[in-house]
Design goal:
395 residues, alpha/beta, TIM Barrel, 11 strands
Length: 395
């Protein structure tokens, strides 16, 4: 009897160990293995859309004392109907005045963000939240110069730590979350030669200062430590999901901007140095935003595809997979030149075997540039839904 019990106990413990190992070893959401994106133990091929203001619609209505019109919810339903696998969006109120609810009633603020996450879960839509979308909003809010981001003891960086931990801790167990993004195109405004180049706008009515100074210009050496700290926080709280910078593809003169204070165009080797530097460890991905004017500006690039293939080569060398966080061609798709450019962009994504991308932008009408980029089922840019299905290989 004792021998049988011993055999039974050993078998039971072996089974228990197996299931515990599976449970604790399982990766949540998107993850990286051997330099590629995986999900549910399969290589990823997922091409989504930016739904930039899905959360901001709820937040800003609350700040303005208006009722939630639920347009954000209908938007997610439309994307689900069109088999869009994930969205990239801002989890960051755009202007300083839009942060009112966070400071007055933090739980109400996060309950509004909860709505987006829960609805995405219901519809099986992935989420890539961009945590610090605008490069100067927090500094304006906290009455610091923009370059305070480079000071680890500044109010800006202290707040960044707090907010990153709040967001990631609250949602890290949601199956909807695909990854964590730092912000939007911070490096693109860095190191620009000229006294006023790269300075943010100054609109006091929106909570910004009345004027800007040279301390409101950013350098990469000030931004990189914030990237690294964010990635460490994200990896500490969520060990499996990828971390993204949210940057555009580097400028064609990024190396010379940074190291020589000129606008001379970089060699391809210099461009590679900058693409690597803009995605520092422990960030485990390379992010680019693919727009025609940036992709064709390199002196070593003859077409859009050349720039994609360049980024792909750097990705393979670093074993950091590429996220094309934004791509697209503006204005009417009824114009043959725009449609041709769009087709070239899609073909280039395919040719470079890009696993993860998000077209810009779904249903954006309330920003200056919104109308020329906005994609919706009832405008002439709705062809992008068809192109996403083509990239995703779904009907």
């Amino acid at each position: 009897m004792g021998k049988k019990l011993s055999i039974f106990l050993k078998s039971f413990l072996a089974i228990l160990f197996f299931y515990c190992s599976v449970s604790y070893g399982a990766e949540k959401g998107l993850y990286i293995k051997d330099g590629h994106f995986y999900k549910d133990n399969k290589l990823v091929n997922a091409h989504g859309i930016n739904y930039f203001n899905v959360f901001l619609r709820i937040n800003n209505a609350a700040v303005e004392g208006k009722a939630d019109d639920l347009s954000w919810k209908r938007g997610l339903e439309i994307l689900s109907e069109n088999k869009v696998p994930f969205i990239r969006f801002s989890a960051f109120p755009f202007y300083p005045i839009d942060w009112k609810l966070y400071f007055e009633d933090k739980e109400a603020y996060f309950s509004n963000l909860d709505k987006v996450v829960r609805e995405a879960e219901r519809l099986n839509i992935g989420l890539i939240p961009s945590i610090f979308w605008v490069h100067h909003t927090l500094q304006d809010l906290l009455k610091e110069p923009v370059n305070a981001i480079g000071n680890e003891n500044s109010k800006t960086r202290i707040f960044m730590r707090t907010y990153a931990r709040e967001v990631i801790t609250r949602y890290k167990d949601s199956p909807a979350i695909w990854g964590w993004e730092f912000g939007n195109e911070f490096a693109l405004v860095c190191d620009l030669p000229g006294e006023k180049s790269g300075l943010p706008i100054a609109i006091p009515a929106l909570g910004m200062p009345a004027t800007r100074s040279k301390s409101d210009k950013l350098k990469r050496e000030e931004v990189y430590p914030a990237y690294i700290e964010f990635a460490k926080i994200a990896k500490d709280l969520d060990k499996s999901r990828p971390v993204f910078t949210g940057d555009a593809i580097i400028r064609s003169s990024a190396y010379n901007n940074r190291y020589n204070n000129t606008r001379d165009k970089d060699s391809i080797d210099e461009s590679e140095i900058m693409l690597r530097e803009d995605n520092p460890d422990p960030i485990d991905t390379i992010t680019i935003h693919a727009y025609k004017e940036l992709m064709l500006a390199f002196k070593w690039s003859n077409n859009i595809s050349d720039s994609f293939l360049f980024a792909k080569r750097v990705s393979e060398k670093t074993k950091k997979p590429i996220f094309v966080g934004e791509w697209g061609i503006p204005n009417s798709m009824e114009e043959s030149a725009n449609k041709k450019d769009m087709e070239e962009m899609v073909a280039s994504i395919k040719a470079a075997n890009i696993q993860l991308s998000a077209v810009w932008v779904f249903d954006l009408k309330d920003h200056d540039t919104g109308p020329k980029w906005s994609i919706s089922p009832d405008n002439n840019r709705n062809i992008y839904f068809k192109k996403l299905k083509e990239l995703n290989k779904v009907e």
